[in-house]
Fold these 2 entries.
Entry 1:
Amino acid sequence: MAVQSHARDAQNLLRSRLCNPSFVFKALSGSPDSNYSKLKFILSSSVTEACNNSLLLLGPRGSGKTAVLELVLNDLLEEYPDMISVIRLNGLLHNDDNCAFKEISRQLCMEHHLLFSKMASFDDNSQFLIAMLRECGLAHKTIVFVLEEFDLFAQGKQRLLYSLLDAMQSITSQAAVIGISCRLDADQLLEKRVRSRFSHRKLLFLPPSTEIIERLLQHILLLPMDSTLPNDYATQFNTKLESVLADERFKEILKNYLSSSSTINHLLRFLFVAVSSIDVKSGYPSLDNFKTALSSFRRQPKQECIKDCSILELYILTCIRRLESKEQKSYNFNSVMKEYKSIHDQFQTSDDYARNVCLRAFERLLQRDLICFSDNRGQGQSVEFRPVKCLISHFELQEGIKAYRSCPIILTKLLDR
Amino acid sequence: MGKEESPQAARRTTRASCAAASNGEVGRSTITPLHNPTVSDLAFGGEPLSSEDLRSSFPARRPQILELVHLLGPHSSPMLPLFVYGGASTGKTTVILQVFRHLNRPFVYASCRTCYSPRILFESILNQLLLHRKNEANGYSSAKRCEKPSDFVNFLREDVGKVVDSLKDHSGKRKSNKSRRWPKGDILYLIIDNLELVREWDKSSSLLPFLFNLYDILKLPNFALIFVSSSSPDTYYSSMGYIEPIPVFFPEYTEEDLRQLLIRNQANQKLYSCFLDIVLRPFSRVTRRLDELSTVFSSLFQKYCEPLSDTSLFPNDEMKRRLFSHFRPYISPALNEIFWGPSQCLSGIESGKVTRQRGSIRKHEDNEDFTEIGFHMSTAAKYLLISAFLASRNPATLDASLFDSTGGSDNRKRKRKASEKSMEQKETVEQESLMKGPGTFPLERLLAIFQCITSVIDVSIDEEEHGDGFSTDGGNSSWLMSNVLSQLSSLCDANFIAKGGSCPLEGSTRYRCTISEDFALKVARSIKFALPNYLCRR
């Protein structure tokens, strides 16, 4: 019983670690040439020496750009209290200029305990921003603008980017603009007037090396010895885990997983499933946990879809593939039905169903996203006449039918011909 | 859970009761207006579910339940977003809601089917969080007006914070509050159902990445997201990326699972199992969806039991054979009726029975019931429908030869032997007609054809009635003017004729007849009109 409750506590601890990016990335902040140190250096120079900076954090999704920035900002806020205010914008939320300015004003008002007016116009808000920048500059207070999904701000007229970067040219203001994007060509999207005001400093976030991954695994998964968990349980947990981590098979699984998705957040997701599947009764991690995690991510949705189909639906898919191999440009339910009838006439299959039954099966295929309408026109037209296209390849269908239990042999034959 | 008639029924009641629970128990509030909604209403109302009950009520979903419980983890432990997917009617929503009932955790449920636009979705989530109830006093308005994702994020941060605070408050002094069941843990779960529908919304290209990134945008440790979708994660890929949520797959039921599920809650399980021996295999070849199968089987089982006086008996071999021979003729028509509702299905079989008594079971047609239903349409509307059908089916160039005795007289002479090339052409034309569907026609053509076919009939009727050619053109056209246009609009409303866009060259509206040939023939038969003579066969 005791082991069970300890195991639950341990699982809880590991899960909250995995869901907390700042804990994970703290492990990587030590070395002097890490992105953390570079970013901290640049930002602290803005704070202490009042130089205006702009830079881009680039890297694939899930490589920890935001997490590292948050770490740096938190550290700086502790080091220099009352000297920094952070404005956070997200391209997904504020990609129209009006909305972005409103959000900036709102956050500035919150920060400085001012009254925010929802009715303020675009002009009011942008003037307010300039005024605030001047005031803060005079008070030696740095405003850090964090623009997540930076590439989305570069759509349209880029008025927000222009006015932010332009305001930074004046000597009175003290600010930093940090763009975060997963598009490596994000600075190429900028207009000329914006680009000339941008510093073109970039920090690249690369996929982690093997050593880093090993260090992260140790950092995240090993239980601390000085927590509420009893010492002997934690020691045993850690030795079990060490043996799993050292196992060749584990390394194989990890390599297999990381070959398709190599960023740190993907690794966290993988570990999360593995930790969640630790059996509370036995209480300790095993290699099987990592195997289940791998199999839950290694899914082939199209194959699963084919496995879910009924035999009539497979017939219709086969007919569609046959039409496609006849190089027919477009087809709809009627032409599929003609093919279906001809198959039946030729081979006398036992699966000859009425037209409306086939139509229902056809609609189910549409629901499963195995086929879709090839154009959005003709909404008013009934399903039978709208041209469709097939969303799975010949090979996928062949594999799916091979793996299908109790599938009529005639189908494989029809498909091969 | 175990008492309901079929799994399908269970699913419906679950959704309804869930809505009642999470919306602050609407039903109860009308009786006792003093009841103030509290945070405890965010958990599933009613009795808690033991893990045995949970497992026994979903016999075929054991691995999925286990996986979900593992991923949800112990209470108060954070979770990365989940993505639950699987075909329609595989029990995704029901299982998740019942798992929450079992675990007794607070959650907010929003389905993109009922919340059909971003604004309604956002406001419904916020209403549930704020325990706001739409009623007469507040003019059925939402707690907050929220249209943009940016506002939604701000509100959500605020409200989730409040809810989590009160959850934490109570977990401290839980012992004092034993009268009401209080939800466990301080994590709030947001379940977004029917996510696949969002792809068809207007702003889906910005809304979907927003929803998938919501967890990262909010950065709230006490907030967890679960997406439920009937289509697989690979159908959501777009140019905007996101970290894929953790997938949980619900596969379609196998034949064995279906048997287990269907046999549950039957009064006489042995009898039903004999019934399933016969029907399950052929029907599962057509569809493996539980909702469709249970509808068809419920009516078929009544047929199966008809010869029995006492349905609680255990069938022996001899009785099974008797039942089978009685039942066999119903199977194949029912297989072809699977698309239709149960009542029509039965009437079809009924008419099949009549024909069998006449000793001509082979002549039985699937759509026999059409003639029996009969259409409450005026004769003029029927003629109009037929002329619309003709106008849609026949090419306009052949109208003259079909309806005018002098127009296409030289048609036969020009008929030549079909060469290889013309055969090929014919095939492509046929292909095209399959693709294109019914053709469109202007109003003038419809009226012309209508006048042609009604004039023929008029003459014959008049001859029968008066014996002389008394009818005049004037009378004919007045009938046309007074009636036909209103009939046309009512046919359009009934969706027999579709109004298309106007032709850019002519500027007039074009129509299209959407009825099938079988149906047109039936209508023609009911007014004794020789439709096949007028159809152009290529």
Entry 2:
Amino acid sequence: MAEGTLRRTPLFEEHRALGARLVPFAGWEMPVQYEGIKAEHEAVRERAGLFDVSHMGEVTFTGPQAEEAVQRLVTRDVSRLSPGQAGYAAVCYEDGGTVDDVLVYRTPDGFLVVVNAANREGDVSYFLEHTEDLDVEVKDESDDWALLALQGPEAASILGRFTETDLSSLGYYRYEVGEVGGRYALISRTGYTGEDGFELYVRPDKAPAIWKDLVGAGATPTGLGARDTLRLEAGMCLYGNELDAETTPLEAGIGFAVHLEKPVEFVGQEALRREKEEGLRKKLVGFEVEGRGIARHGHEVASGGEVVGEVTSGTLSPTLNRAIGLALVEPDVEDSFKVVIRGKAVAARAVGLPFYKRAR
Amino acid sequence: MSVPGELQYTKTHEWVRIEGETATVGITEHAQDELGDVVFVELPESGRTLDAGEAFGAVESVKAVSDLYAPLPGEVVEVNESLGDNPEKINEDPYGEGWILKLRVSGEADLLSAEDYENFLKETE
């Protein structure tokens, strides 16, 4: 995409003023790093980091059949979400391949579905196409929201200085509507880093003031580079890497978000039920590289001289200082295999996920 | 970005310091800045013979991989083993402790002067 057509978030000028390295990402001009990925990663693990993720899309479902519409579209049983609760889910094709992975919030008048930036337009078409016969209004509200993620062990104490909302009683995957510095915010205890933290859905024109408040209170501006290393250490999937049209949520290891017995049939349910009965065609494994080198997205996984899979994400883990990765491999692959790093087969070993778990 | 006047450069962002028949090679301050935090350096074996422009290794940051190319033909006589434990030296001191290897030069190649390299950086910005 030509640079002139890239979208900018309401925080673009903040990023520029902070000297961020701005790169094209999913059609947006986004900060990949400010001071450096390692320092930002460490800030989130040890203190608090602040991310601009306003490129994410927000789609609302309202009307008498809003619940039926969302039930039909996502793998999670959203009838079990109580008001003020959020749940992670996948959206599937009829064949079980993944359209997107999303966060679903039950709102007072329906649902808010948060989608990946790269999939936004496609998702909205898909949602409309599959709910035509229902009495539901599906609305892309992405341009009405900015999204900030405040993540890390000090996130609650920093946010607490700016809000009346009782954060100590706000549970994981719960949200409340409140204010941050006197400005409207949907305060959600969710994140993509493996740390405690919040995602703040705010009005675009108020986002810069909230950003400055939180940075002023000690949150470290953190770019998409560290967001990726943080989520990978936490063993979380990234659409386009672990999840895509060729990969089902069961294969990608997010079966916890797939409720095969839910009361309303969802698109892809039959295919997923069949795959579960017949056995997975491939599976997601976490691994550590034992030899020298760093595995990267697209590298082959080999065992006994055969190609048995592909690395979906890989990096040097800043927290563990080891080369880690996720791979989609044939279901019977043993725990010891090779990763082909620039032509060289390097020993790797499957390890349990997540790579990093915070102390509670 | 610093571009020391006494060094020569390549369009693939290596620098070369020629002393007698030995050439010390590293990556430029611009290159390390583009890469970000360097976390791994793949070095060749001593004794390997390289042609000018031949890929001999790679520098990896958290996010990116960048191949390294020989600026001149020659035999690898020494590699900077300390980068194994301290790859961040490439970020901290790209023209000093972050050197990558030394070649016994066996021929010539087109290299850029500091001024040419600075102009090249401006053109490609």
